[in-house]
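Please describe our next protein:
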Amino acid sequence: MKRIAAEYLYTLEGDAPVRNGYVEFDEDGTVLATGVTEDPSAEAEFFRGAVVPGFVNTHCHVELSSMKGLFRKGSGMAGFIDQINALRDTKSREEKIADIRFWMDKMYADGVSAMADISNCADSFAIKAAHPMYTRSFLEVFGTEPEDCDAVMDSVRRLKELADSFGLDAAPTPHACYTMSPELMTAASREGLRSGFLSFHSEESDEEEQMLRTGSGPMWDNRKAAGMSTPPVTGKSSLLYFLDRLQAAHPAPFDEHILLVHEVCMDREGIDAVKAVMRHPFVALCPLSNLFIHNVLPPVRLMMEGGLKLTVGTDSLSSNDTLDMLKELFCLQENFPFLDLQTLLVWACRNGAEFLGKEGSMGSIAPGKKPGLVHISSLSPSGVLTTGSVSKRLV
Protein backbone atom coordinates (compact mmCIF):
# COMPACT_ATOMS: atom_id res chain seq x y z
CA MET A 1 0.00 0.00 0.00
CA LYS A 2 1.12 3.55 -0.77
CA ARG A 3 -0.25 6.87 0.42
CA ILE A 4 -0.13 10.51 -0.68
CA ALA A 5 -1.83 13.61 0.75
CA ALA A 6 -2.48 17.16 -0.40
CA GLU A 7 -3.81 20.52 0.71
CA TYR A 8 -6.82 19.85 -1.50
CA LEU A 9 -7.95 16.38 -2.49
CA TYR A 10 -10.55 16.50 -5.25
CA THR A 11 -12.15 13.07 -5.15
CA LEU A 12 -15.11 14.37 -7.23
CA GLU A 13 -17.26 12.00 -5.21
CA GLY A 14 -18.65 14.93 -3.19
CA ASP A 15 -19.48 18.56 -3.78
CA ALA A 16 -16.20 20.04 -2.50
CA PRO A 17 -12.53 19.12 -2.11
CA VAL A 18 -11.23 17.45 1.04
CA ARG A 19 -8.87 19.78 2.91
CA ASN A 20 -5.65 17.97 3.89
CA GLY A 21 -6.96 14.80 2.30
CA TYR A 22 -5.10 11.55 1.66
CA VAL A 23 -5.39 8.70 -0.84
CA GLU A 24 -4.21 5.15 -0.25
CA PHE A 25 -3.63 2.95 -3.29
CA ASP A 26 -1.98 -0.32 -4.23
CA GLU A 27 0.92 -1.06 -6.59
CA ASP A 28 -1.15 -0.87 -9.78
CA GLY A 29 -2.80 2.42 -8.82
CA THR A 30 -6.14 1.04 -7.61
CA VAL A 31 -7.55 3.32 -4.91
CA LEU A 32 -7.98 1.62 -1.52
CA ALA A 33 -9.17 4.47 0.70
CA THR A 34 -9.46 8.24 1.07
CA GLY A 35 -9.74 10.40 4.16
CA VAL A 36 -8.49 13.40 6.11
CA THR A 37 -4.94 13.43 7.44
CA GLU A 38 -4.65 14.49 11.08
CA ASP A 39 -1.07 15.72 10.76
CA PRO A 40 0.01 16.87 7.28
CA SER A 41 3.60 17.34 8.47
CA ALA A 42 3.80 13.63 9.31
CA GLU A 43 2.82 12.50 5.82
CA ALA A 44 5.63 10.94 3.79
CA GLU A 45 4.34 12.67 0.65
CA PHE A 46 2.31 15.82 1.17
CA PHE A 47 1.68 18.03 -1.87
CA ARG A 48 0.97 21.73 -1.83
CA GLY A 49 -1.87 22.45 -4.23
CA ALA A 50 -4.34 19.78 -5.29
CA VAL A 51 -4.41 16.08 -6.06
CA VAL A 52 -7.11 15.20 -8.59
CA PRO A 53 -8.17 12.22 -10.73
CA GLY A 54 -6.62 11.69 -14.15
CA PHE A 55 -8.09 13.90 -16.87
CA VAL A 56 -10.26 12.66 -19.74
CA ASN A 57 -9.58 14.56 -22.97
CA THR A 58 -12.85 14.15 -24.87
CA HIS A 59 -11.75 15.70 -28.15
CA CYS A 60 -8.32 15.38 -29.72
CA HIS A 61 -6.85 14.77 -33.17
CA VAL A 62 -3.53 13.36 -32.03
CA GLU A 63 -2.60 12.27 -35.56
CA LEU A 64 -2.34 16.00 -36.46
CA SER A 65 0.43 16.57 -33.90
CA SER A 66 2.99 17.22 -36.64
CA MET A 67 1.11 20.42 -37.55
CA LYS A 68 2.11 22.36 -34.45
CA GLY A 69 3.02 25.95 -35.25
CA LEU A 70 2.08 25.80 -38.93
CA PHE A 71 -1.28 27.56 -38.87
CA ARG A 72 -2.32 31.21 -38.91
CA LYS A 73 -4.59 32.18 -36.05
CA GLY A 74 -7.89 33.94 -36.58
CA SER A 75 -8.46 32.59 -40.09
CA GLY A 76 -12.09 31.56 -39.54
CA MET A 77 -13.29 28.10 -40.45
CA ALA A 78 -13.06 28.52 -44.22
CA GLY A 79 -9.47 29.71 -43.92
CA PHE A 80 -8.67 26.96 -41.44
CA ILE A 81 -9.95 24.27 -43.83
CA ASP A 82 -7.81 25.71 -46.61
CA GLN A 83 -4.76 25.47 -44.35
CA ILE A 84 -5.55 21.86 -43.36
CA ASN A 85 -5.77 20.85 -47.02
CA ALA A 86 -2.51 22.64 -47.87
CA LEU A 87 -0.44 21.52 -44.87
CA ARG A 88 -1.67 18.02 -43.96
CA ASP A 89 1.12 16.20 -45.84
CA THR A 90 4.10 18.48 -45.23
CA LYS A 91 5.87 15.87 -43.07
CA SER A 92 6.81 12.24 -43.68
CA ARG A 93 4.86 9.40 -42.07
CA GLU A 94 7.84 8.65 -39.83
CA GLU A 95 7.90 12.25 -38.57
CA LYS A 96 4.15 12.17 -38.00
CA ILE A 97 4.37 8.97 -35.95
CA ALA A 98 7.22 10.37 -33.85
CA ASP A 99 5.13 13.47 -33.10
CA ILE A 100 2.10 11.34 -32.18
CA ARG A 101 4.21 9.31 -29.75
CA PHE A 102 5.73 12.43 -28.19
CA TRP A 103 2.38 14.10 -27.57
CA MET A 104 0.68 10.92 -26.34
CA ASP A 105 3.50 10.55 -23.80
CA LYS A 106 3.33 14.22 -22.84
CA MET A 107 -0.43 14.18 -22.33
CA TYR A 108 -0.11 11.09 -20.14
CA ALA A 109 2.69 12.66 -18.07
CA ASP A 110 0.54 15.79 -17.69
CA GLY A 111 -2.26 13.66 -16.27
CA VAL A 112 -4.52 12.51 -19.11
CA SER A 113 -5.75 8.99 -18.33
CA ALA A 114 -8.22 8.59 -21.21
CA MET A 115 -8.95 10.23 -24.53
CA ALA A 116 -11.64 10.35 -27.19
CA ASP A 117 -9.53 10.72 -30.31
CA ILE A 118 -10.42 11.46 -33.91
CA SER A 119 -8.68 9.34 -36.55
CA ASN A 120 -8.68 9.74 -40.31
CA CYS A 121 -5.99 7.11 -40.87
CA ALA A 122 -4.10 4.37 -39.01
CA ASP A 123 -0.99 6.39 -38.07
CA SER A 124 -1.83 6.43 -34.35
CA PHE A 125 -3.14 2.87 -33.94
CA ALA A 126 0.03 1.02 -32.90
CA ILE A 127 0.96 3.76 -30.42
CA LYS A 128 -2.51 3.78 -28.86
CA ALA A 129 -2.55 0.00 -28.60
CA ALA A 130 0.69 -0.05 -26.58
CA HIS A 131 0.00 3.06 -24.48
CA PRO A 132 -1.12 3.19 -20.83
CA MET A 133 -3.65 5.89 -21.76
CA TYR A 134 -7.08 4.49 -22.66
CA THR A 135 -8.38 5.71 -26.02
CA ARG A 136 -11.58 5.39 -27.98
CA SER A 137 -10.96 6.19 -31.65
CA PHE A 138 -13.66 7.92 -33.67
CA LEU A 139 -13.01 7.13 -37.32
CA GLU A 140 -14.06 10.34 -38.97
CA VAL A 141 -16.03 10.26 -42.22
CA PHE A 142 -16.00 12.93 -44.96
CA GLY A 143 -17.60 13.11 -48.39
CA THR A 144 -19.71 15.85 -49.97
CA GLU A 145 -20.89 13.95 -53.05
CA PRO A 146 -23.94 11.69 -52.57
CA GLU A 147 -22.77 9.17 -55.17
CA ASP A 148 -19.61 8.52 -53.12
CA CYS A 149 -21.47 7.41 -49.99
CA ASP A 150 -21.06 3.65 -50.43
CA ALA A 151 -17.37 3.87 -51.33
CA VAL A 152 -16.63 6.15 -48.37
CA MET A 153 -18.41 3.79 -45.97
CA ASP A 154 -16.54 0.79 -47.39
CA SER A 155 -13.27 2.65 -46.77
CA VAL A 156 -14.07 3.51 -43.15
CA ARG A 157 -15.17 -0.07 -42.49
CA ARG A 158 -11.74 -1.24 -43.64
CA LEU A 159 -10.14 1.30 -41.29
CA LYS A 160 -12.26 -0.06 -38.44
CA GLU A 161 -11.12 -3.61 -39.22
CA LEU A 162 -7.53 -2.41 -38.93
CA ALA A 163 -8.28 -0.65 -35.62
CA ASP A 164 -9.94 -3.83 -34.38
CA SER A 165 -6.81 -5.80 -35.24
CA PHE A 166 -4.88 -3.57 -32.80
CA GLY A 167 -7.46 -4.24 -30.08
CA LEU A 168 -8.70 -0.64 -30.09
CA ASP A 169 -12.21 0.55 -29.29
CA ALA A 170 -13.11 2.26 -32.56
CA ALA A 171 -16.06 2.99 -34.81
CA PRO A 172 -17.02 5.38 -37.62
CA THR A 173 -18.36 8.82 -36.77
CA PRO A 174 -19.62 11.70 -38.95
CA HIS A 175 -17.38 14.77 -39.15
CA ALA A 176 -19.61 17.83 -39.66
CA CYS A 177 -22.58 19.00 -41.69
CA TYR A 178 -20.46 21.00 -44.14
CA THR A 179 -18.17 18.12 -45.17
CA MET A 180 -20.82 15.45 -45.75
CA SER A 181 -23.72 14.73 -48.02
CA PRO A 182 -27.00 14.09 -46.21
CA GLU A 183 -26.81 10.43 -47.24
CA LEU A 184 -23.30 10.01 -45.86
CA MET A 185 -24.09 11.79 -42.60
CA THR A 186 -26.90 9.36 -41.91
CA ALA A 187 -24.92 6.31 -43.02
CA ALA A 188 -21.93 7.22 -40.84
CA SER A 189 -24.19 8.01 -37.89
CA ARG A 190 -26.00 4.68 -38.25
CA GLU A 191 -22.70 2.79 -38.29
CA GLY A 192 -21.27 4.69 -35.33
CA LEU A 193 -24.39 4.44 -33.21
CA ARG A 194 -24.07 0.65 -33.28
CA SER A 195 -20.96 1.05 -31.11
CA GLY A 196 -22.93 3.08 -28.56
CA PHE A 197 -20.85 6.22 -29.12
CA LEU A 198 -20.79 9.13 -31.54
CA SER A 199 -18.70 12.31 -31.75
CA PHE A 200 -19.73 15.18 -34.02
CA HIS A 201 -18.27 18.63 -34.77
CA SER A 202 -21.29 20.87 -34.31
CA GLU A 203 -21.89 24.61 -34.59
CA GLU A 204 -18.18 25.38 -34.52
CA SER A 205 -18.57 28.75 -36.25
CA ASP A 206 -20.99 31.39 -37.48
CA GLU A 207 -19.78 30.51 -40.97
CA GLU A 208 -21.23 27.02 -40.55
CA GLU A 209 -24.55 28.49 -39.41
CA GLN A 210 -24.68 30.87 -42.38
CA MET A 211 -24.13 27.95 -44.72
CA LEU A 212 -27.09 25.96 -43.42
CA ARG A 213 -29.46 28.82 -42.65
CA THR A 214 -29.03 31.02 -45.72
CA GLY A 215 -26.73 29.34 -48.28
CA SER A 216 -24.16 32.11 -47.99
CA GLY A 217 -20.92 33.09 -46.30
CA PRO A 218 -17.25 32.12 -46.54
CA MET A 219 -17.74 28.39 -46.10
CA TRP A 220 -20.50 28.27 -48.70
CA ASP A 221 -18.29 30.19 -51.13
CA ASN A 222 -15.33 27.94 -50.28
CA ARG A 223 -17.26 24.75 -51.08
CA LYS A 224 -18.72 26.18 -54.27
CA ALA A 225 -15.34 27.39 -55.51
CA ALA A 226 -13.93 23.90 -54.95
CA GLY A 227 -16.73 22.37 -57.03
CA MET A 228 -18.16 20.50 -54.04
CA SER A 229 -21.79 19.85 -53.29
CA THR A 230 -23.13 21.86 -50.37
CA PRO A 231 -25.54 20.76 -47.65
CA PRO A 232 -29.20 21.70 -48.08
CA VAL A 233 -30.21 25.20 -47.04
CA THR A 234 -32.68 24.51 -44.24
CA GLY A 235 -33.25 27.89 -42.63
CA LYS A 236 -32.41 26.12 -39.36
CA SER A 237 -29.23 25.74 -37.34
CA SER A 238 -26.66 23.13 -38.32
CA LEU A 239 -27.39 21.37 -35.00
CA LEU A 240 -31.07 20.92 -35.90
CA TYR A 241 -30.03 19.68 -39.35
CA PHE A 242 -27.77 17.09 -37.70
CA LEU A 243 -30.60 15.94 -35.45
CA ASP A 244 -32.78 15.42 -38.52
CA ARG A 245 -30.09 13.28 -40.17
CA LEU A 246 -29.52 11.38 -36.93
CA GLN A 247 -33.19 10.47 -36.72
CA ALA A 248 -32.97 9.10 -40.26
CA ALA A 249 -30.38 6.64 -38.88
CA HIS A 250 -32.83 5.36 -36.30
CA PRO A 251 -35.82 6.89 -34.53
CA ALA A 252 -35.44 8.83 -31.30
CA PRO A 253 -34.85 8.52 -28.41
CA PHE A 254 -31.12 7.89 -28.54
CA ASP A 255 -29.71 5.85 -25.67
CA GLU A 256 -26.19 6.08 -27.10
CA HIS A 257 -23.56 8.48 -25.73
CA ILE A 258 -23.43 11.34 -28.24
CA LEU A 259 -20.77 14.04 -27.98
CA LEU A 260 -21.38 17.44 -29.60
CA VAL A 261 -18.00 19.09 -30.06
CA HIS A 262 -17.55 22.90 -29.82
CA GLU A 263 -21.14 24.27 -29.96
CA VAL A 264 -20.07 27.91 -29.93
CA CYS A 265 -23.41 28.90 -31.52
CA MET A 266 -25.70 26.75 -29.37
CA ASP A 267 -28.93 28.43 -28.29
CA ARG A 268 -31.91 27.48 -26.13
CA GLU A 269 -33.77 26.02 -29.13
CA GLY A 270 -30.83 23.71 -29.81
CA ILE A 271 -30.50 22.63 -26.17
CA ASP A 272 -34.20 21.78 -25.98
CA ALA A 273 -34.04 19.87 -29.27
CA VAL A 274 -31.03 17.84 -28.11
CA LYS A 275 -32.63 16.94 -24.80
CA ALA A 276 -35.85 15.95 -26.54
CA VAL A 277 -34.16 13.17 -28.53
CA MET A 278 -30.92 12.25 -26.68
CA ARG A 279 -30.91 10.51 -23.31
CA HIS A 280 -27.13 10.93 -22.91
CA PRO A 281 -26.04 14.17 -24.61
CA PHE A 282 -22.56 15.50 -23.87
CA VAL A 283 -20.78 18.64 -25.09
CA ALA A 284 -17.00 18.92 -25.51
CA LEU A 285 -15.63 22.39 -24.76
CA CYS A 286 -12.38 23.19 -26.59
CA PRO A 287 -11.93 26.85 -25.67
CA LEU A 288 -8.33 27.37 -26.79
CA SER A 289 -9.13 25.96 -30.23
CA ASN A 290 -12.22 28.20 -30.51
CA LEU A 291 -10.10 31.24 -29.69
CA PHE A 292 -7.33 30.12 -32.06
CA ILE A 293 -9.63 29.86 -35.10
CA HIS A 294 -12.48 32.30 -34.45
CA ASN A 295 -11.75 34.22 -31.24
CA VAL A 296 -15.13 33.15 -29.84
CA LEU A 297 -16.21 30.92 -26.94
CA PRO A 298 -19.29 28.75 -26.38
CA PRO A 299 -22.25 29.90 -24.24
CA VAL A 300 -21.14 28.01 -21.15
CA ARG A 301 -23.66 29.47 -18.71
CA LEU A 302 -26.54 28.69 -21.08
CA MET A 303 -25.33 25.11 -21.44
CA MET A 304 -25.11 24.72 -17.67
CA GLU A 305 -28.57 26.18 -17.17
CA GLY A 306 -29.84 23.80 -19.86
CA GLY A 307 -28.55 20.81 -17.90
CA LEU A 308 -26.11 19.53 -20.52
CA LYS A 309 -23.15 17.41 -19.38
CA LEU A 310 -20.03 19.35 -20.25
CA THR A 311 -16.63 17.81 -20.92
CA VAL A 312 -13.27 19.25 -21.99
CA GLY A 313 -11.01 18.58 -24.98
CA THR A 314 -7.85 20.04 -26.44
CA ASP A 315 -8.62 19.62 -30.16
CA SER A 316 -5.44 19.37 -32.26
CA LEU A 317 -2.11 21.10 -32.69
CA SER A 318 -3.41 22.52 -35.96
CA SER A 319 -5.77 24.71 -33.88
CA ASN A 320 -3.97 24.89 -30.55
CA ASP A 321 -0.50 25.68 -29.26
CA THR A 322 -0.47 22.72 -26.90
CA LEU A 323 -2.47 19.65 -25.77
CA ASP A 324 -2.63 20.68 -22.13
CA MET A 325 -5.92 20.02 -20.33
CA LEU A 326 -4.99 22.32 -17.45
CA LYS A 327 -4.53 25.24 -19.84
CA GLU A 328 -8.03 24.57 -21.19
CA LEU A 329 -9.38 24.71 -17.63
CA PHE A 330 -7.49 27.93 -16.92
CA CYS A 331 -8.91 29.46 -20.10
CA LEU A 332 -12.43 28.58 -18.99
CA GLN A 333 -11.78 29.96 -15.50
CA GLU A 334 -10.45 33.24 -16.89
CA ASN A 335 -13.33 33.75 -19.32
CA PHE A 336 -16.12 32.47 -17.07
CA PRO A 337 -15.17 33.64 -13.54
CA PHE A 338 -18.26 32.05 -11.99
CA LEU A 339 -16.71 28.60 -12.55
CA ASP A 340 -14.95 27.04 -9.57
CA LEU A 341 -12.24 24.40 -9.75
CA GLN A 342 -14.56 21.65 -8.52
CA THR A 343 -16.91 22.26 -11.46
CA LEU A 344 -14.07 22.40 -13.98
CA LEU A 345 -12.62 19.14 -12.70
CA VAL A 346 -16.00 17.40 -12.85
CA TRP A 347 -16.12 18.35 -16.52
CA ALA A 348 -12.48 17.40 -17.22
CA CYS A 349 -12.54 14.11 -15.31
CA ARG A 350 -15.86 12.63 -14.19
CA ASN A 351 -18.10 13.71 -17.09
CA GLY A 352 -15.48 12.69 -19.63
CA ALA A 353 -15.19 9.24 -18.07
CA GLU A 354 -18.96 8.92 -18.16
CA PHE A 355 -19.06 9.81 -21.86
CA LEU A 356 -16.57 7.04 -22.58
CA GLY A 357 -18.47 4.58 -20.40
CA LYS A 358 -15.48 4.37 -18.05
CA GLU A 359 -17.02 5.90 -14.93
CA GLY A 360 -16.67 2.57 -13.12
CA SER A 361 -12.87 2.81 -13.19
CA MET A 362 -11.97 6.44 -13.96
CA GLY A 363 -13.10 10.00 -13.44
CA SER A 364 -13.12 10.19 -9.64
CA ILE A 365 -11.06 8.99 -6.67
CA ALA A 366 -12.92 6.21 -4.89
CA PRO A 367 -12.07 2.73 -3.57
CA GLY A 368 -11.83 0.20 -6.38
CA LYS A 369 -11.21 2.77 -9.10
CA LYS A 370 -7.97 3.28 -11.01
CA PRO A 371 -8.27 6.85 -12.30
CA GLY A 372 -4.65 7.95 -12.09
CA LEU A 373 -3.64 10.61 -9.57
CA VAL A 374 -2.49 14.05 -10.72
CA HIS A 375 -0.86 16.91 -8.83
CA ILE A 376 -1.85 20.48 -9.71
CA SER A 377 0.71 22.93 -8.36
CA SER A 378 0.76 26.69 -7.74
CA LEU A 379 -2.85 27.31 -6.84
CA SER A 380 -3.76 30.75 -5.55
CA PRO A 381 -4.28 31.29 -1.78
CA SER A 382 -8.01 30.81 -2.43
CA GLY A 383 -7.38 27.52 -4.22
CA VAL A 384 -7.94 28.49 -7.88
CA LEU A 385 -5.72 28.01 -10.92
CA THR A 386 -3.01 30.56 -11.69
CA THR A 387 -0.82 31.22 -14.73
CA GLY A 388 1.87 29.16 -12.98
CA SER A 389 -0.31 26.10 -12.31
CA VAL A 390 1.07 22.88 -13.77
CA SER A 391 -0.33 19.35 -13.79
CA LYS A 392 1.88 16.29 -13.30
CA ARG A 393 0.97 12.63 -13.06
CA LEU A 394 1.82 11.00 -9.72
CA VAL A 395 0.22 7.59 -10.31
Notes: Residues 55-323 form a domain with the TIM Barrel fold (CATH 3.20.20.140). The CA atoms of residues 333 and 339 lie 6 Å apart. The chain has a mean pLDDT of 96.
